[in-house]
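Trying the structure run again after the queue cleared.
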Amino acid sequence: MESEGARGGVHVTGAERLLVVGDVIDDVIVRPSQPRHHATDNPARIAFTAGGSAANQAAWAAHHGAGVSFVGRVGTTDLARHTESLSRAGVDAHLVPDRMAATGSIVVLVDDDGERTMFVDRGANQNLTIDDIRPELLVGADRLHVTGYLFFSERGRSVGRDLLRRAREAGLAVSLDPSSAYHLRRLGGAVFRSWTEGIELCLPNHLEARILAETDDLAVAYERLGATYGTTVVKHGADGVTVLRPTGEPERLRPTCRQAAVDSTGAGDAFAGALLSRLCRGEDVPAAARFAVDAAGEVVTRLGARPPPT
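Done. Tokens:
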């Protein structure tokens, strides 16, 4: 059964509820409008948008009809703004104001082909604590989703491992987006796998999959990831995804149509959110991934990583 949500979208009555924990970021997206000139002015389109991989994924899941709660940290002066932004997307936001650090920020340089290079200051995200995640949020959820950024600092790793333990004790299905090839390479894929082994669903892109498995051979990577996680969905950008299930051969899913990329920022987040929304409806992973592959094409046609305002 479906019902009208507060944002004007459709929520599925009786569907599983999703809890997302992770980063909130202010994005500054820069797309040069002509070839770059060193040491002088460069005309560009510049957009200031709300972002953060985990917050983006929560927003996209809610956009596609899931009931979503989100926990993250922001600078004190940004609490109302980010709460409102997530609420407009349909997310039940539980943001913690940080008096010691500003909201995290990223400058994203977008190439002509829509690919991006990011310069990151994680800010208040680095100060998330296990106490920020109220017990009733876990009790009220059916699924937990986290991103790899939670595990890329010693403090965050402690929070992440404690959170995974509590989620398993509460009987939640857990999913993970590894999020960053840079951080995975710095830490080592085998180490990261040891911290996250047993998670039911992992969503790396093809580069992250190779780093996680510590091999350039995708077939070997698929085997190692299959031994670590329940199901893995490997993202190949505009070429779709590969679904790796505990049994059976890898299944390649391609988009029904290709969109011209203006800005690829958030495409993986849009895919994750769309997939999670369908899992909350009770669909299996391949069916959810088919929907998500096409749904992710929506975000690359414009600047910014969140759903359009409704």
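Residues 150 and 225 are 20 Å apart (CA to CA). Worth checking whether this holds up in the mutant runs.
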